[in-house]
């Protein structure tokens, strides 16, 4: 088995934490695309395609949002500490990619997926939601793997960030700069 080494970078702790806080926005931006993707590619593989299309596929972006909030927003400092980043200076586009590749390793690691699944069972389901915990355990891991493969492309994410585009202020989603 191989272990992934921390990225060689001069990305500072504060820069890293700031970028971890932005991950929730990235998930929100592609939520509808994830739902459509799961309906087209995951639901046909389940026992109940109709239930998946009506329920499971629309819940996945919300589950991922909870995961990102817990592990990468609330836990931003911890993730950045595992990267070993602490030199103070502006980071580069290449360092953005390396950093998101590190996050990708977290998001796709089978042990972390098991941790995320347990977290969702314990924190995303309430007793009144019959079958919630069982459904999370049964469906979340595979939906998560599929969406990470399709949507977590570090170079594409970074290429929309000011550090790679050269913009000084990212355009507001309802008032883009032309």
Would you give an account of this structure?
Helix 1 (13-29) packs across helix 4 and helix 6 (110-123) packs across helix 7 (132-151). The chain has 9 helices and no strands. It is mostly helical and 178 residues long. The longest helix has 25 residues, at 49-73. The protein has helices at residues 13-29, 31-41, 49-73, 76-83, 93-108, 110-123, 132-151, 154-158, 162-165. The model has no long low-confidence stretch (mean pLDDT 80).
Shape: globular
Q: How much β-strand is present in the residues?
A: under 5%
Succession of helices and strands: HHHHHHHHH
Q: Assign a percent range to the helix content.
A: 55-70%
Q: Could you report the average pLDDT, rounded to the nearest whole number?
A: 80
Question: How many E-type strands?
Answer: 0
Q: Give the helix tally.
A: 9
Biggest sheet layout: none
Low-confidence stretches are none
Distance between the termini: 49 Å
Structural class: mainly alpha
The radius of gyration is 17 Å
Write a compact overview of the structure shown:
This protein is mostly helical and 178 residues long. It contains nine helices and no strands.
What is this structure's SSE topology?
Layout: H1 13-29, H2 31-41, H3 49-73, H4 76-83, H5 93-108, H6 110-123, H7 132-151, H8 154-158, H9 162-165
Key descriptive features of the protein:
178 residues, mainly alpha
């Amino acid at each position: 088995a191989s272990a992934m080494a921390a990225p060689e970078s001069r990305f500072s702790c504060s820069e890293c934490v700031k970028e971890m806080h932005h991950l929730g926005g990235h998930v929100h931006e592609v939520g509808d695309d994830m739902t459509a993707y799961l309906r087209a590619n995951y639901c046909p593989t389940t026992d109940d395609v109709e239930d998946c299309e009506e329920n499971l596929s629309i819940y996945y972006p919300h589950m991922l949002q909870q995961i990102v909030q817990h592990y990468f927003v609330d836990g931003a400092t911890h993730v950045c500490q595992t990267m070993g980043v602490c030199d103070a200076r502006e980071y580069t586009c290449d360092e953005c990619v390396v950093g998101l590749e590190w996050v990708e390793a977290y998001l796709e690691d089978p042990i972390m997926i098991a941790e995320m699944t347990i977290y969702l069972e314990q924190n995303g389901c309430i007793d009144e939601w019959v079958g919630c915990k069982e459904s999370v355990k049964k469906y979340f891991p595979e939906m998560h793997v599929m969406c990470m493969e399709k949507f977590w492309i570090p170079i594409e994410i970074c290429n929309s960030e000011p550090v790679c585009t050269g913009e000084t202020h990212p355009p507001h989603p309802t008032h883009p700069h032309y």
